[in-house]
Amino acid sequence: MQQSKKELRKKYKSLRQELSVDLIEEKSMAIANALLKLPIWDKNYFHIFLSITEHKEIDTELILHLLSGRDKDIIISKSDFETREMTHFLLTDNTKIKKNEYNIPEPIDGIEVASKKIEVVFVPLLAFDLKGHRVGYGKGFYDKFLSECTADTIKIGLSFFEAEEIISDVFENDIPLNYCVTPEKIYTFK
Fold first, then answer.
1. In angstroms, what CA-CA distances link 63 with 60, 111, 136, 141?
2. What is the pLDDT of residue 48?
3. What is the per-residue pLDDT for 162?
4. Quick one: pLDDT at residue 87?
5. C-beta separation of 134 from 170 below 8 A
6. What is its EC number (predicted)?
7. Could you say which residues of the chain have pLDDT below 50?
8. How far is residue 66's CA from residue 138's CA, in Å, rounded to a whole number?
9. Is the overall model pTM greater than 0.70, yes or no?
């Protein structure tokens, strides 16, 4: 069944609100463990989002532990809501994190990293389809960011829920994912 991004946004925000803290923890752990099976561990520069707990997002804390345990360079972003651009910073022991007005945990400042240098991006999403298209929050931050990355950058969606068949209103410049990992399954896209 085809659904629009708007319909899917509403559906999955509602489904997320029904998840308990324990279930979020359990599903986040299953996703983190599944990531170990992906062919990404020879890369060095990993971009990850810090979870917005108020939106019941996947807890990326476990993925952060995986990355730091394997000595990867971890990159996090700060969003500018006027320009819709993200600035990327290397996560170090000295990085100070502060929630912005939208409850997004962000670095205050740090060592800037160019989008072109990032090899793997963990992409937040509300829903995705069998072709690797995703539905985000609709602000376009990740579309813009992913368009600045190289063609070789591996884009991995993280989702509590399984794929929809098809998103009806995909735009020409929407950048599809290479993988999407759910607690039950790894989806691979061409």
1. 5, 21, 20, 21
2. 98
3. 97
4. 96
5. no
6. 6.3.3.2
7. none
8. 29
9. yes
Angle, in degrees to the nearest 10, between helices 21-35 and 61-69: 30
What's the confidence (pLDDT) of residue 103? 87
Measured between alpha carbons, how far is 188 from 80 in angstroms, rounded to an integer? 31
Per-residue buried b or exposed e for 58-74, using 16+ beta carbons within 10 Å of the residue's own CB: bbbebbbebbeeeebbb
b/e code 3-32 from CB counts within 10 Å (16+ = b) = bebebbbebbeeebeeeeeeebeebbeebb
Question: In which residue are the tokens 């532990």 written?
Answer: 65
Specify the fold of 2-188. Rossmann fold (3.40.50)
- Estimate to the nearest angstrom the gap between the alpha carbon of 76 and the chain centroid: 11
As a whole number of angstroms, the distance between CA 57 and CA 125 comes to 9
Report the candidate in 118, 134, 124 with the shortest Cα–Cα distance to residue 177: 134
Question: Cα(105)–Cα(96) distance, rounded to whole angstroms?
Answer: 10
Mean pLDDT of the chain: 95
Per-residue pLDDT, 65: 96
Tell me the C-alpha distance between 38 and 65, whole Å: 16
> Is 4 in a helix, a strand, or coil?
coil
